[in-house]
Design a protein that fits this description.
Elements (H helix, E strand, L loop, with lengths): L1 H8 L5 E4 L6 H5 L8 E2 L3 H6 L9 H6 L2 H10 L4 E2 L5 E4 L4 H14 L3 E4 L3 E7 L2 E7 L2 E4 L3 E3 L14 H8 L8 E3 L3 E3 L11 E9 L8 E8 L3 E3 L1 H14 L5 E6 L6 H14 L5 H5 L5 H10 L13 H12 L1 E8 L7 E3 L7 E2 L4 E2 L5 E3 L13 H21 L1
Parallel strand pairs: 1-5, 9-20
Antiparallel strand pairs: 2-4, 3-4, 6-7, 7-8, 10-17, 11-14, 11-16, 12-13, 12-15, 13-14, 15-16, 18-19
Helix pairs in contact: 1-13, 9-12
Length: about 400
């Protein structure tokens, strides 16, 4: 939609081919229906959160920055604020307001939206795009922007069409896996804590050379494992590792501000000063009851075990669990529940200054279909807006 707006504003003739009954269904659902469109990070910090390929975004972010996005939203009647100092949401807290504004801008630029029109292949001749073949016949065009998203969230339109179109043009597509997705664990005890939320947890991949892969934020225990922002931000890397490994070990620190030694000292003081209290009741002072119970079970501590009777070995095990709680990830909730796709059209054959294919003139890519994905917090939507703006304006120039 942003590519269409940008191209229309550059006076190009625009046809938006939408395979669903209407565009923007994913957008309507983002941020729990509130639409966290961007965040307060500067461009360098923003790009760093996308990993080793992040600097590919430089020209797109320069062409359409966060400030440009916020200004456009104001002008389009959807002012946004970052009430928490980081995440920008529409003041109305309605993702549908953002979607409606995009549709209005498309219509204002005389762009044509054709719903239930699926592109089936690209039409290419002599290294130039000539149009697309659709479910309703051929559509000639001097420029085509592939902004088909990724495989995530198929109930809201996620599909692999963009990858297939890219392959038709000779582009390599890296392996894709779900990202920003809940993880399933071998351990069953998280299910007994289902629905419990910990507001501030750090999560680490417990593998050699990956100890720096740490995220911090809210964690949610689910029926089958763990979710929440702290997990979602690490999930793409974990699901990528699961392609070559049957399982991936992770650890949780339930109270990041408290070290192992501090927990050991606290637990030792329970033994000497509060020896008749049960460990479960003492843990209840720090943790939800169901989680305290699960930790006691996992550490072999009976529900009626008193602090004064704990052996040194059990006290050490409990301190370790509070700072490095081990979990074994065996899978994820899959593309069906994923918010984003990791992987996609390889960046090496896409020109970052225009997002034009280096293999086929007049072919452009934007958004999630490319091999770039970021964490929770407005990263992926900002990339969608910025890349859409650059690809659309570049395509309009090519059309001339």
């Amino acid at each position: 939609m942003m590519a269409g707006i940008s191209a229309a504003e550059a006076r190009a003739t625009v046809l938006l081919c939408e395979r669903q009954e209407k565009p923007g269904r994913k957008l309507s659902a983002t941020g729990g229906g509130h639409c966290n469109i961007t965040n307060t990070l500067d461009a360098e910090s923003f790009m760093s959160r996308f990993g080793k390929h992040g600097r590919f975004m430089t020209d797109a972010l320069r062409r359409f920055s966060r400030d440009d996005l916020l200004q456009h939203m104001r002008e389009w009647g959807v002012p946004c604020e970052a009430d928490d100092g980081f995440h920008y949401f529409p003041i109305s807290q309605k993702a549908t307001d953002v979607l409606d504004a995009l549709e209005r801008r498309l219509h204002a630029g005389n762009a044509v939206i054709r719903n239930r029109l699926e592109v089936t292949s690209l039409e290419i001749a002599d290294g130039h795009i000539r149009g697309v073949r659709t479910s309703k016949g051929s559509m000639p065009a001097n420029a085509v922007v592939v902004a088909a998203g990724g495989a995530a969230w198929p109930a809201l339109g996620g599909c692999r069409l963009g990858y297939e179109l890219a392959k038709q043009a000779g582009h390599a597509v890296t392996d894709v896996c779900p990202a920003l997705v809940g993880l399933a664990t071998r351990e069953t005890w998280p299910g007994y804590c289902s629905g419990v939320t910990m507001p501030d947890v750090t999560v680490r991949i417990d593998l050699p050379k990956l100890h720096r892969s740490v995220t911090r934020g809210t964690l949610l225990f689910t029926h089958g494992g763990v979710s929440g922002p702290a997990i979602l931000d690490l999930s793409g890397q974990v699901t990528d590792l699961l392609r070559a490994n049957a399982s991936v070990p992770i650890t949780l620190n339930l109270k990041p501000g408290t070290s192992h030694d501090s927990w050991r000292a606290t637990i030792d003081s329970w033994r000497t000063k509060r020896g008749k209290k049960t460990i479960r009741n003492l843990l209840d002072e720090f943790l939800p009851q169901s989680l305290a119970t699960a930790i006691c079970d996992a550490c072999g501590i009976g529900q009626d075990a008193q602090a004064g009777h704990l052996t040194a070995h059990v006290r050490e095990t409990l301190a370790e669990w509070m700072t490095d709680m081990p979990l074994t990830v065996t899978g994820s909730e899959g593309f069906e529940q994923a918010m984003v796709t990791r992987g996609g059209v390889a960046l090496r054959d896409v020109n970052p200054s225009s997002l034009e294919s280096r293999l086929v003139r007049g072919l452009y890519f934007a958004g999630e279909v490319l091999d770039l994905d970021g964490p929770c917090g407005g990263y992926n939507l900002q990339w969608a807006f910025s890349s859409g703006s650059l690809a659309g304006s570049s395509a309009a120039l090519h059309q001339r």
